[in-house]
Design a protein that fits this description.
- The chain has about 475 residues and is of the alpha+beta class.
- It folds into two domains: about 325 residues, Zn peptidases (Aminopeptidase, 3-Layer(aba) Sandwich); about 140 residues, Alpha-Beta Plaits.
- The protein is built from 16 helices and 20 strands.
- The strands form four sheets. Strands 1, 2, 3, 4, 7, 8, 9, 10, 17, 18 and 19 form an eleven-stranded mixed β-sheet that branches.
- About 45% of the residues are buried.
Length: about 475
């Protein structure tokens, strides 16, 4: 979109690296910040992993908070299904003043990846503040944002604040798995009116530090890939291992996976990735930066593509990717294998159909003895939401206020969020800037997960202003 690229380019002039002022970092907590910290701590210390925890329990605690802070039972909807009683969620509504403007949906997932105490340095379900970080499972993904949404609505209700637009909050379970009950999917299929909105703010955005306290980038998450799993399988009549033959299911599978390893799906660009590579390319005076600008100008530039492919993230952002992640084969140590298979995990570029990916895998393998079958997917095909001035402009202004000189970059996630279920029913989903993390990912999904203390408090103030700005857009 030329107009969006122009906005991004104009804002890039005189970019500097921003370090948060000492006063904002180190001043004693305000009373409202202390209340937020207590809420955040309670959420982290409530285990919501799929195996040992309960989202329903945390949803109950959130409901109690809401009822104590200006909301009534009529404003709150709890939901769960009988066969997944621990995977419930909550929807809360704060009415706006306009009768015609559509609501804004604040979305978050309560579930976390399971953590084992014996593997962690600290208790994963105790929030510990240490050396400028909050440690604990969910401190990064994504309970700081969940707590910001809850805290924000509570403060608005207590203050009697109402924007033009109604604000809705949906906190659900099931984002961290592809096989369990997913609350956003259930809401979109069973209670779409409860979450209907002009757009949603979700995870996926935020910024990045240099690893030493300086913020170097803020991101606006605009679109994502779709996740699907395929099975490649070879079969054979088998026989006795004492008389081997070349026609061996395991060898055939190995040959097929070698072809997949060496194959790249075709390069693709959309409005978000064009804006991303334009913005980042303008900030870099090196081979990679020049390649970014060249690929936007000419997607068929093979030399530029080769340079970008040297970076794993850029390589993935430019195409669908498929990679073997699991293997099985054979049935006895003294028998030729009758069957061998591999699970191939694919991250599909928006607009590409599941069947097209399956056919491509089939063509790459080019072996009629092999079968390629889609075995599951995470949800509907991803739809790239529009990158509009309505979404971009308020975020751009606040990045300039809170992080002077730091670029705001639209990004397409190579991972996955629950936004795909909203986009399937016509609700564009965006991940706002504001929070930020370290280049190493802060242990999300891994050991000793952590969040930068300064980032949490500054991000909370940023997001409160951003939601207020969005809520007051448009005529009454």
């Amino acid at each position: 979109m030329k107009s969006i690229a122009a906005v991004l380019s104009a804002a890039f002039a005189a970019t500097t690296i921003f370090s948060i002022p000492a006063q904002a970092q180190d001043a004693p907590l305000r009373a409202d910040q202390a209340a937020y910290r207590a809420l955040y701590k309670e959420m982290v210390e409530t285990d919501t992993s799929i195996t040992t925890g309960s989202c329903t329990a945390l949803a109950g605690k959130i409901e109690a908070h809401m009822l104590q802070n200006g909301f009534t039972a009529a404003d709150i909807t709890r939901f769960a299904v009988p066969d997944h009683p621990k995977e419930g969620g909550i929807v809360v509504v704060l009415p706006g003043t306009s009768k015609v403007l559509k609501p804004i949906l604040l979305l978050g997932h309560l579930d976390v990846v399971v953590a084992k105490r014996e593997d962690w340095t600290r208790d994963p379900y105790t929030m510990i503040e240490e050396n400028g970080y909050f440690y604990g499972r969910g401190t990064s993904d994504m309970k700081p944002l969940d707590a910001i949404w809850v805290d924000m609505l509570e403060r608005f209700a207590k203050q009697g604040y109402k924007g033009k637009r109604t604000l809705k909050m949906a906190l659900t379970c099931g984002e961290e798995t592809s096989w369990a009950f997913n609350g956003v999917k259930w809401l979109s299929e069973n209670r779409p009116e409860l979450i209907s909105a002009e757009f949603a703010l979700n995870e996926g955005g935020g910024g990045r530090s240099d690893g030493h306290g300086k913020v170097v980038q803020q991101s606006l998450h605009v679109g994502e890939k779709t996740v699907a799993n395929y099975r490649i399988e070879a079969t054979n009549i088998g026989g006795h291992s004492s008389i081997p033959i070349r026609d061996n299911a395991i060898y055939e599978l190995g040959d097929a996976l070698g072809k997949l390893r060496d194959f790249d799906f075709p390069l693709m660009l959309n409005d978000t990735t064009k804006a991303y590579f334009t913005r980042i390319g303008q900030s870099r005076d090196d081979e990679m930066g020049k390649a970014m600008l060249a690929i936007v100008a000419n997607p068929a530039d093979k030399a530029a593509e080769a340079v970008l492919n040297k970076d794993r993230s850029f390589h993935s952002m430019l195409r669908t990717t498929c990679v073997a992640t699991m293997l099985d084969g054979g049935h006895a140590n003294n028998a030729l294998p009758q069957r061998a298979g591999a699970l191939v995990n694919c991250r599909i570029f928006p607009g590409v159909a599941y069947e097209d990916v399956r056919k491509t895998l089939e063509a790459v393998i080019a072996d009629p003895r092999m079968t390629v079958t889609k075995i599951d997917d995470r949800g509907p095909l991803a739809k790239a939401p529009p990158l509009t001035a309505q979404i971009l402009d308020p975020a751009q202004k606040l990045v300039a206020k809170y992080y002077p000189g730091v670029p705001l970059v639209p990004t397409m996630s190579t991972g996955a969020t629950d936004g795909i279920f909203l986009e399937a029913i016509g609700i564009p989903s965006y991940g706002p800037p504001g929070l930020y993390g370290d280049p190493d990912g802060n242990g999300a999904h891994g050991l000793n997960e952590r969040a930068i203390v300064k980032a949490v408090y500054v991000g909370r103030d940023f997001l409160t202003e951003l939601v207020t700005a969005y809520a007051n857009q448009g005529a009454k």
